[in-house]
């Protein structure tokens, strides 16, 4: 695993499920970049000082992509060095529980299993530990954007559009908005009181009206 820390973007998304206890609050998610192709990955490995050229690396990766599912599909977990282990799990079909041993006679496993999934378990050994909490320490987390997804109808089809607002921008706009409201309220009270007091001395209610009317809210 690379030792140099490169920033991993963290976005915040608002919970819009009104039935959820976290409704209205913002929760973190990884700021995913464009998916790297196998060729791009091979070029990345080549650029990192590999003794093998890109086409050789890509050939080996292609072979892994063919052989790994074949072995996992036979119930053979495959451990790729310090990366971790790929292994199969069965997803149980709905109402697939077998009630008794007698019911197992002539049973078709396809009636019990809805799907077979390839799972990945990160290496957790002391030397190469890349499990969640430990891998986090290898990343330089950086807050980036507030994410919002809206649904639009385009040519009769429902489309989802994602918008990103930099968190720093959103915070600054919120502060400016709160500052304007506070300033307006404070200014109104100060102006009204000052104007009312001055008006009382010089002309009564007219002075109070003018004093309160000089406020400017931004």
Considering the chains and any ligands shown, give keywords for the structure.
disordered C terminus, 5 helices, alpha+beta, 218 residues
Topology:
Blueprint: E1 7-14, E2 26-30, H1 38-47, H2 54-72, E3 78-80, E4 84-92, E5 113-122, H3 132-137, E6 140-154, E7 157-166, H4 167-202, H5 205-212
Parallel strand pairs: 1-6
Antiparallel strand pairs: 1-2, 3-4, 4-5, 6-7
Helix pairs in contact: 1-2, 4-5
In percent terms, what proportion of residues is strand?
25-35%
Gross morphology is: extended
Secondary-structure element pattern, one letter each: EEHHEEEHEEHH
Beginning-to-end CA distance, first to last residue: 52 Å
Number of helices: 5
Helix content: 25-40%
Strand order of the largest sheet: 2-1-6-7
Number of strands: 7
Can you describe what's shown?
The chain is built from five helices and seven strands. Helix content is 36%, strand content 28%. Helix 4 runs antiparallel to helix 5. The strands form two sheets. A four-stranded mixed sheet has the order 2-1-6-7. With 218 residues, the protein is of the alpha+beta class. A hairpin with a 2-residue loop joins strand 6 (140-154) and strand 7 (157-166).
């Amino acid at each position: 695993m690379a030792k140099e820390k490169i920033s991993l973007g963290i976005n915040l998304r608002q919970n819009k499920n009104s039935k959820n206890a976290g409704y209205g609050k913002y929760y973190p998610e990884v700021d995913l970049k464009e998916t790297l192709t196998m060729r791009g990955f091979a070029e990345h490995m080549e650029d990192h000082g590999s003794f093998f050229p890109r086409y050789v690396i890509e050939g080996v990766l292609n072979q892994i992509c063919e052989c790994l599912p074949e072995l996992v599909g036979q119930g053979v977990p495959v451990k790729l060095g310090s990366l971790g282990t790929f292994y199969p799990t069965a997803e149980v079909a709905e109402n697939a529980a077998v009630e008794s041993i007698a019911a197992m006679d002539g049973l078709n496993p396809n009636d019990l299993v809805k799907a077979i999934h390839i799972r990945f378990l990160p290496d957790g050994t002391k030397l190469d530990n890349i499990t969640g909490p430990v891998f986090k320490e290898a990343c330089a987390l950086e807050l980036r954007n507030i994410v919002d997804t809206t649904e639009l109808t385009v040519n009769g089809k429902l489309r989802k559009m994602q918008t990103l607002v930099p968190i720093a921008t959103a915070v600054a706009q919120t502060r400016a908005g709160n500052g304007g409201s506070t300033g307006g309220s404070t200014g109104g009270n100060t102006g009204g009181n000052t104007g009312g007091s001055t008006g009382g001395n010089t002309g009564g209610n007219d002075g109070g009206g003018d004093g309160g009317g000089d406020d400017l809210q931004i």
